[in-house]
Amino acid sequence: MSVIGAGKSGLAAAELLMKAGARPFVTEFGSMNPDAKATLASAGIPFEDGGHSARMYDADFCIVSPGIPQTAPVLIELEKRGIPVYSEIEAASWFCRSRIIAITGTDGKTTTATLIHRICQADASSRGYRTFSVGNIGVPFASKVLEAAPGDLVVLELSSYQLERCVTFRPDVAVLTNITPDHMDRYRGDINAYAAAKYRIHARQGAADTLIYNYDDPMLKAHFDVSEPWPFNVVRFSLRDCGTLSGCSCVTVRDGSVAVLSGSASEPVIAVDEFIKASFRGDHNLYNALASVAAAKAVGISDEAIRKGLVEFGGVEHRQEFAGSACGLEWINDSKATNINAMRQALQAVPQGMVLIAGGRDKGNDYGSVAALVREKVACIVAIGESRQKIADAFEGIVPVETADTLKEAVDKASKVASPGSTVLFSPGCSSFDMFRDFEDRGEQFKQLVRELAS
User: Fold this and answer.
1) For 153, what's the count of Cα atoms within 13 Å in the CB-facing half-sphere?
2) Dihedral of the CA atoms 314, 318, 320, 326 (nearest 10)?
3) Roughly what angle, to the nearest 10 degrees, separates helices 439-454 and 407-417?
4) How far is CA 377 from CA 313, 318, 321, 374, 450, in A?
5) Residue partners of 367: CB distance under 8 A and separation at least 6
6) Sheet bearing 47-49, strands edge to edge
7) Which of 159, 175, 224, 245 could form a disulfide with 103 if both were Cys (CB 3.0 to 4.6 A apart)?
């Protein structure tokens, strides 16, 4: 079998399949880094880089890295030859003996996955099982799957890219946070194609499994509100209206507490005031909490552990993270906001009069969708990255816009134009790959620049 792409997931898949008795061959179109070569060499796995040779087609099946689009010529050729192509997630699932809670969606999946993992850890410490946080959160599923025993729990964050090549993958619990336009460059502007990739999370679920979804999200509501019953258990979460339950339960906020509704019964779990704090605020984080409670209840986690996990949770790094005070201003690092909806959530959570630093590699963004909110909340925008001119054009006449060639220049400009006592929000709304290694690198550089200002 062949593995296409020598990133973290590709290397983990190759090592896993080697241990399982397969004979993997890793092929990388670009230059493979020395550490990857050393890893493969020590495992006795043959590889190539600098292009794909004919050897890659001498395979019973292929594993493809998520960053390679389905329109790539190499994938088209594999399909012509009738060679099956799977994702690393699919391959790892073949070996998984433990329970799986899988989370996907446009926004909130990292926060929700992290929160579910913290709740599971609180429960596991008293009940003697282990939990694993893997997937899009940064640790390949394939690198941990053999460690997970039947009684353990895998909390698996999934992107649409990772789900595209899943065929038999079947999580015990699947969570869908929301669906809004994202990665429209990859899906050619078709949100239904993007949504179809997300829906693969429940494609193989059956009667023993549970699907949890955001009932307030229009696309998810339309997808799941059908006359024919789904073959799995359904749980909704909502801040507005749980609808007619018709046999499914709902997690919502009632009388100031997160509560589980089932039929006419209402079971309070925790008061909202106990876990909402400065680093974990806004309706989007309430949604994350509701989804996490629903997932935890679905696998039988105690209310005590749920409360402990929620109370102790301090948010996720690079997601509306307080980066410090400098020049009489508060600085918020929201580098993980790689789409417009995530930017919208940050704008809603931060007080009026802010300076917004935004921009990066555009993914087909419609900036007009946040124009009214920007007019209401933002005093000035500093635009960076490849999209800076598009942002300047989009908000012309709405708020003042300045452009900057570097993040340092943007931070310097923001410190000068912001009113004393106000907030500078770094919420790019775009991917990071034009100027940075990834969103973590972008966020770390922003925080370092704020520290330098403060000193």
Assistant:
1) 27
2) 100
3) 50
4) 28, 21, 19, 5, 22
5) 340, 390, 391, 394, 395, 429
6) 47-49, 25-28, 2-4, 62-64, 85-87
7) 175
Pairing type for strands 99-104 and 173-176 reads: parallel
Strand partners, 271: 257
What residues does 262 pair with on adjacent strands?
A: 265
- d(CA 374, CA 379) in angstroms, rounded, equals 8
Give the pLDDT confidence score for residue 137 in this predicted structure. Answer: 85
- CA 265 – CA 365 distance, rounded (Å): 43
The answer to whether residue 409 scores a pLDDT higher than 80 is yes
Q: Could you tell me which residues come within 8 angstroms of residue 145 by beta carbon, excluding any fewer than 6 positions away?
A: 16, 92, 93, 95, 96, 154
Rounded Cα distance, 165 and 430, in Å: 25
8 A C-beta contact, residue 384 and residue 357 = yes
In order of start, what are the domains of the chain with their CATH numbers? 2-83 (3.40.50.720), 95-312 (3.40.1190.10), 321-454 (3.90.190.20)
Confidence of residue 93 (pLDDT cuts 50, 70, 90): very high
Q: How confident is the model at residue 26 (pLDDT cuts 50, 70, 90)?
A: very high
Distance CA 342, CA 336 (A): 8
Listing DSSP states for 63-120 in one string gives: EE-TTS-TT-HHHHHHHHTT--EEEHHHHHHTT--SEEEEEE-SSSHHHHHHHHHHHH
pTM recorded for the entire structure: 0.81
281: exposed, middle or buried (Cβ count in 10 Å: 0-12, 13-18, 19+):
middle
